[in-house]
Amino acid sequence: MDPRSVKLADLTKKQRRWDSVIEKKCKWLDEQRKHRLETRDKSIPDIKDFFAGRSVLITGGTGFLGKAVIEKLMRSTPHINKIYVIVRPKRNQVPSQRIEALFNSDVSRLIAQPFILTAKN
User: Is the pTM higher than 0.90?
Assistant: First the structure.
């Protein structure tokens, strides 16, 4: 018998064993996810309901994560009262220029709602 065929047979057995392990793990994760959804605390509101009528203060809104948070709030919370963003001067740019760049970025193009831009230097 060719030694290469023995190694190939061993690899096939190992692959089947790993496939079985992965399949069991995926089933377990699905069960855990279903359990969490079923036992979720119903008193915790959704994001949309939580922020309805509220105002939010965001620091670092011109950064990567800040842009994502602002976009998410504007997209998924139509009844949010106001979003305040604290912006500091940086790299020879005044805050109003940084806010203008924020609203000209790709993130703001995803937002379907109109917004009002106000900046105080």
Answer: no
